[in-house]
Every structure is written in structure tokens, then in C-alpha cells.
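Consider this record:
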Amino acid sequence: MPLATRPRGTARREALLEAVLRIVADTGPDAVTHRRVAEVAELPLASTTYWFSSKDELLAAALALAAERDIESLHRRSEQSGRGGPLARAVEVICEPLHEGLRASRGSLIAAYALWLEAARRPELRAVNRRWTAAYHEVIAGLLADAGSGDPAGDAQLLVAAADGLLMEQLAEGGTSDLRPRLLRLAGALLESR
């Protein structure tokens, strides 16, 4: 990348974190090194060590960036008026990112889930995971409450967990089927069981 087009300041930090997410999506968290991140970001190695003193810091900051972006998108999606009632809207809010630029979202999802699982080995990632999951639970619980759920928090937890499981299965299998019908069926069954 020519010097004139290289990012500066906090834009450089964000470019490094984008590189971390690409590496994690392509080859996993173990492949993240300062040198590899600098190569993928097309920035000098000193850039990585200026902003991040360790691999742990790189991974934690990349996960935080991914979570922050998705939480902002989640709130935007939940505030948009959608087709169908609140139950269909809850499912749509969960599934909508999968249909916006499938290739890009697939890489983002792989990176997010890989880092989510990395929290089993790296406790410093757990707080971000908890905040990210809590945001989904809160938004989906609100929509399920509007749909008449007797236990919106519990139903939201089950619906989000089911979506995560189905998404991880699809990512592992390379599939791209529409999850909405299955999640809508599950959401309907949760409401009927109360």
C-alpha cells in the first residue's frame, strides 16, 4: 500500500483489528501474531507493537470491535419497522445480518465464533462475550414480550442459543440455508408452551 494511502492514528488501529479478524476468520486465533497482523494490514510491524503489547491484547481488542459493531447493528435492526409481528421481527433481527453480503458476514461470523470459543482459554475475552450476548438477550426479550411471552428473558436465551447453534453448524458445514423458518417455528413453540 503506498504511503499516502496508509491509515493514520486510530484508523491505523482499526485497520490492525480488521486484519486480526481476517486472520481469525481465515486460519484461526492461533495464527495471530504481530508480524502477520502487520502484513495483512499492510502496515509496518511497529504499528502493531505501538497499539498492542501482546497477542492477548490484539485478540481482546478485535473481539471488542466486532461486538461493538454488531451491538450497534442489532439496536438499529430492532428499531426498524419490519414485516410481521413482534415474533417474526425477533427472528428477523437475529437472521438479518446473514443475508447482508453473505461472504462478508460469513467471515465475520467465523471470526466472532472463533473468538467467542477462544474465551474458554482466555478469560480476558469473557466480559466482551457476556456483554455481546446480553445485548441480544435484552433486545430479543423485548420483542418476545411484545409477542406475549410469559418468560421473555428465558425465551430470548433459548432462541438466541438455538440461533447460535444453527449458525455454527452452518458455518462448519459450509451451508447457507435460511434459518428464519426454523427459528420462527421454535419461537412460536416457546410462546405456546407458556
Notes: Residues 91 and 184 are 6 Å apart (CA to CA).
